[in-house]
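Blinded run. Sample ID left blank on purpose so nobody reads anything into the name before looking at the predicted structure. Input follows.
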Amino acid sequence: MARGFIPIRRDQSVLLPENMNDWVSKNHPVRFFIDVVDELDLTDFYGSYRTGAQGRAAYDPKMMVALLLYAYANGIRSSREIERQIEDHAAFRIITSGDLIDHATICRFRQTHQQALEDLFVQVVGVCVAAGMVRTTVVAIDGTKIAANASQAANASDDQLKKLAAKIFAEAEAIDQQEDGTFGDRRGDEIPEDLVDRAARIDFLREELAKRKVPKRGGDKKINKTDPDSRVMKTPDGYVQGYNAQLAVSGDHFIVAADLTEEANDVNQLEPMIEQTQDNLEAAGAAEIRTVVADAGYLSADNVALDVSAGLLISPTTRGDLDDAIKSRPETNDHADKTALRRVRHDDHHRRLIMDAYVAKQVTAREAASALHAPIASVYFWAAHLRKHGHLPRVKIYLPLPGPSASAIMLERLADPESRATYKLRAQTVEAVIGHLKEHRRLRQFLHRGRSACRVELRLTAAAQNLRRLGASRNSNPDKGWLPYLLANLHWA
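Blinded prediction complete.
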């Protein structure tokens, strides 16, 4: 049994350390974030300030960037929550040098410097490259759905938006009539002369609405009134109102490219992501990519035929085991037998319609040949026969079989054991990083609205994730003089 307890003396005066650096341990992660941000090129941030002018002094962008990166690295993206952390936690107070920064200041800084914060991601990739990280032997690309700051209930069709606009106009007209009866011809705060007349004002509003009319996207598609850029997307857990986040991850789990799209399908994102990855790595001074791997969501004939310097491996199957799919693939056709390349098409009625249109000069001979998949000489012969005898000769139209499918091409590439082993690295790289972003960085839903603002949020979170991983890697080489080595190898223009 314990002899006693340490007394609780909350009203006793204490002497805190005079140097706030003593508030946290020497190996605390906050020191790493401060030191790295001190070496970044923040010219774009400083360029928007007028030094020496009148007014209150602004907070140093160097401190604000460190604050945002450290907060995002800890899964804190709300400006109000960051303000609470500054008040409650010593690490945040060290970044701000003891100042209690208001959430409105944090929010305004983030809004003012959106583009500069987005561009910061490439610099962070350069920091990781300078530290000897970012293995580009294999780069994995994948997409994940992230919820928007909007509800599916706020989706509305074009007809619903028109009804809402009509209701607003009706209310505005009713208010105008009421105010005309109350104030007469003048109210004291007159609007421009060309809008004094109510009819002219209503016409003006309708013209402005027409300029901002929601573009039709085919069918009865809906648009969200809260976040118009977001879309309804299918996830393993059901449907979500959100965005499709695209990530490219190196073999050692560093994010080298990040983008955001409103397209639910990944197939059109492969080429843009490869180009963005190559541009980022070139700017960061990293080695060229040797192999790009992606899952079956990116499989298409166009993507398989992409002319990229790196090797490209895409899964040819969305289900089942890849090894089983390779073993069961059909034998390659050597195309030696011409009859194996063609299939017979018996469709005299279709051919007669096309030829009647050609004889009536409604289509050209080239258009008729294209529609019939036949040589243009055959069109001339059939037209002469039709004019002379009133009917077409019975013929067999031969169509070439399509070439190897995208799946067949990828199955052939992945038949090589080395390529198959390389592709299998995909799941343990990009999917693991997506899990870290959603679980540890808490990026399951965006706080901002609009694709541009959400993309800044994504890239800032990705930069914080890279720095968090980079800072943790120093523990594996404590005798290397890791941080001085890193800072000495940074050369920003």
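Unblinding after everyone has recorded impressions. Confidence is low (pLDDT under 50) at residues 332-345, 478-482.
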